[in-house]
Amino acid sequence: MGVEAANEALAAFGTRLWPIDLTAAPGDVRTLLARPKLTSAEVVTVREAFLLPRERLLEVIVASGREPSVPDGGELSTLDVANNVTYPQLYIVEAGVDYSRFDRLHQNKADDGTELDEVLSILSGSGVRLIQRLADGSQATLQVDCVDGQTGWLLSYGGHPHIGSFTGASPGTKVLVQAIGPARWQARYTEGA
Fold it and tell me: Which of 29, 31, 43, 163 could hold 25 in an S-S bridge, CB 3.0 to 4.6 Å?
């Protein structure tokens, strides 16, 4: 399925996918994307190279067919209070790590019900899956792979129950997650999921 067809199918979910030209990144950053493991300093280098500023995050959210959950986008640095994880976060998939906490349908919300807006930059690897469900029970699954080392993927979603799964991702896969809106939030699992 091509990008246009995927975006047509994802539109009902307020989700959209764009290619990222990885060849535009500095050579040292591209070298790091190909490595399966990174030092703490190298993680910072990759994260800083691909972080989107507020204006671009808001453009991406609106282009996905949604209004930001918080009018100006809210906080760009947020905390998942249940797992004590701060965002933005560069995930590097490792063999043998349990990623099952991501594998149940959930919505990321603050205690007051404010939803999170999420923007993922899939920078290397394969097997990252996004599963979303609408209120009518219909569901869509998108698997994203970086097959050539030259193209990554930008993915924006929010609101609907979803799963952003790394369980089937290849070791070394790198995903930068920018989760914006309320400063503090947690996953609220969907009944029956």
Answer: 29
CA distance 49 to 96: 28
The pLDDT score that the predictor gives to residue 165 is 78
Query: Rounded distance, CA 35 to CA 174, Å?
Result: 10
Domain that holds residue 163: 3-181
Tokens for 81? 């209070």
Cβ–Cβ < 8 Å for 152, 122: yes
**How many CB atoms within 10 Å of residue 112?**
7
pLDDT given for residue 1 in this prediction: 67
pTM over 0.85: yes
Helices (H), 35-165: 40-50, 54-63
Is residue 54 a part of any domain in this protein? yes
The pairing of beta strand 85-87 with beta strand 78-80? antiparallel
Kindly give the parts of the chain with pLDDT less than 70.
1, 159-160, 191-193
The Cα 110–Cα 165 span in angstroms is: 21
Q: Please name the residue that has the structure tokens 């699992």.
A: 189
Q: Of how many residues is the chain composed?
A: 193
Cβ proximity of 105 and 133 under 8 Å: yes
- Residue 136 tokens read as 């009518």
Alpha helices in the chain (DSSP H): 3-10, 27-34, 40-50, 54-63
Would residue 187 count as lying in a domain?
Answer: no
Q: What is the pLDDT of residues 153-166, one digit of tens each?
A: 999 987 667 777 78
